[in-house]
Structures are given as C-alpha cells and as structure tokens.
Amino acid sequence: MITVIGTGTGAALPPDATAAVAGAALVVGARRHLAAVSAAVAEGAERVVLGPLPPALDTIEEYVGKERPVVVLASGDPGFFGIVRALAERFGAGRLDVRPGVSSVAAAFARTGLTWDDAVVVSAHGRALRTAVNVCRARPKVAVLTGPGAGPAELGAALAGGPGARVLVVASALGDPERERVERVTPAEAAVRDWGDAVSVVLCLDEARALAPGRVTVAGSAVGPARWALDEQEFAHRDSMITKFEVRALALARLGPRLGDLVWDIGAGSGSVAVECARFGAAVVAVEKTPDGAERVRANASAHGVDVRVVRGSAPADLPAPSELDDPDAVFIGGGGRELPEIVTACAGRVRRTVVVAMAALDRVPAVRAALIGAGLDCDGVLLQSSRLAPLPGEVTRLAATNPVFLLWGTRPTAAADRPVERHTGREGVAL
C-alpha cells in the first residue's frame, strides 16, 4: 500500500499521519517534508528525496513489489494537480491511501475572503505560460499554479495593459507562520518585482466580478454559452454591417474558440465574432480602424459580460507585434479591400491553428485562397446562401434571401484537432 499524505500548505505532518510514517519501509518527499517527519520515521527505513519523478517511482515500485509499506509526502492536496495522478497511473488507484491537506488554491482564496467554487484553476508549472495568460484575460477569477519562468513577474508582464481591470494576489509561503505573505498588486507592479522561489499560487481577479451573483451549481467556469450564433439584434451595429448569424455559426465551428485560446478578429466591425469567441472562453483581440466601430465593439463586449481587447488601427500595419502579444490560435478576418490578401498572409504567418475569412466579393476569393495556401495552410471553403422566413400581408410567409458570402478557411497541417492533455508533476500536491 502507498499512503500519500498531503501536508496542507505547511510542512508539518498532520496528526493522523504519524502512525503511517512510523510504519513505512520507504518515505518519499521533499527535503523540508522529510525533515519535518524525521522523528517519526522508523530506524532502518529508506528515505528518498524527490527530485526527478521517474527514479522515485522506480524505487517505490521495488517496495510495492515486495509488499512493503510506502509513504509519499506532498504539499497541499496531492490529488489536485499533484502526485496522485502519476502514482495512480503507475500502480493503480486501488493501491493508494490518499490523505489530502488543504490546497494552496483553497488557502489563497480563504486569505482573500472569496469563494473559489466559480474560479478557474490553471497550471503554468512545467508548461507554456500562454494558456494561463489567456485564461486570465478571459475569466474574472483565476488561480494560477506557478513555476520557474512562469511566476508573478512573467504573468504580470503578459497581462499589463490588457482588457479589464485585473489585480494579482500573490500568495507566498502559505502555511509558514513566519514567512507567509499575501500581496495585492497590479500586473505592472508584479512585472518589475523579484518574487523569489516561495510563491505558492497567484490569483488573477477582476474584483468587480470576483463574487459571482446567485448560487453556483457547477464548480469552475462555465463550459460554454447556452446559445451561439446569436441574432443580429443582440448586438449594436451600423446599417446591418455585421456578420450574419448563419455565417457566424460556421465561422465559429471552424475557429473552434475555447478556454486558453487567443483569437484575433480582424476588421471587427460590430465585434459580433469577437464577442461570441469570448463567450466560449477564448481571450480575444479585436482590430477595428474606425473610432465608432472600436467603441461599438467595447459596448457589445460589455453588454455580453466578456472581455475583448480592442486595438484601434488597420491591418496588417497595426496588428499586435509578437513582442506585444502571443501568436493567435485562430484568426477571423471579416473586412478588407484590395489589401485583403496581404492581411491574410500576415495573419496566416503567425496563426497556430486556423484562419477563417468571410468575403462578399467573388473577385477576392482566388487571391485569398492563394494567400492561405502560400502560407502553408490547408485551404477549404464554401459559398453560403440562405433564405430566412419573412412575413407577408395576409398572415403568409415568404423566403427572403440574404446576401451570399464566401467563407474560406486555412488550417495548419501540424495542428492536432484537440490540444493534448498536459501532465503536471510539480508544485501543488507534489513534494518538489
């Protein structure tokens, strides 16, 4: 049997775990955890300091094979982004006796006086920071499990100047009565600090929306909107200059916006596509050249309760530079005149997954298709022609045709249909 003991946010052993440690033939944990339980470890028991996980798992397997008891010490709750996953995959859940402690996420929210049943928890430990950044851009209450190169400074630098007012709550050395610190800073302030190696977790909050109204039924952030391809009247727009819902429905299907993604909406107009992508959980940048259009995008985003970063300018000249913003996962291009192929080329050169282009003019289709293919994307498309029910006098109905629209999309060949599951072997729940 492998007994996995979560020490909570401190290093001391929980009272009910002393007997398990005393009876173990092998005790595995970080140096601070092993030091905290040294008096309880039986004479002759082997101690393994956790560093790289595979060698420790090999040693555990030797003891399990001989039916000798093993204790693994971990920080926080070892079943929450912790070592329980690796142990269960290697030895089976039936061999584990897990005794959880309080996770750093729960402790950090407790220190701020906030519930966390409606928070999104994302790990940046041992993986790219961009997913955590995009989740923070899109959601009002996020807990980020940090790691080397992905701490408060890097998170703050990426979020500074973004949409919405965000505050970072940096919780360090949680559970240590002498060293624990919980600080509220702006992203810009976090970016210029040296935070050391004691950071437990970072909360990213839009404090105006940090306390969700009403009763939360399902923990975490909403999976997705109840409706999409919303009617045009649900957005403010000018003279029907808006992507029609039939076109928007297919565009959304090809864009595939999801939590952790970054989407660009180029020539945003009313921002209907930008808003819908944000409702799916993506972080969104809308590029719009007219002042009234930019304000309309902001108003529509506010009306639907999402954050959209609006860049006032013309593509491709005013597209965010790589130094300003990560490359997008998906791009929607809904505007553009003669320069449309140039815009498509610029976006396709940086996109990670898909570019979707909507056009009313037949003459632009060949050049856009060539631009997508020339950028190394697999290209496909469709001409959308729809007719809507419309009333006539005498309580009868006719079909009213909408303007036909060409929709082309280019997909990067190496992009998988779904993001692979990322494995986490550090920080919360693992004694590293």
UniProtKB/TrEMBL annotation:
Keyword field: Cobalamin biosynthesis, Methyltransferase, S-adenosyl-L-methionine, Transferase
Pfam assignment, any one: TP_methylase
One of the record's GO molecular function terms: protein methyltransferase activity
Pathway(s) served: Cofactor biosynthesis; adenosylcobalamin biosynthesis
Keyword S-adenosyl-L-methionine: yes
The keyword Signal belongs to this UniProt entry's keyword annotation: no
Residue intervals of the Methyltransferase domain: 263-332
Tetrapyrrole methylase domain location: 1-189
NCBIfam families: CbiE, CbiT
Stored PANTHER family: COBALT-PRECORRIN-6B C(15)-METHYLTRANSFERASE (DECARBOXYLATING) (PTHR43182), COBALT-PRECORRIN-7 C(5)-METHYLTRANSFERASE (PTHR43182:SF1)
Listed name of the protein: Precorrin-6y C5,15-methyltransferase subunit CbiE
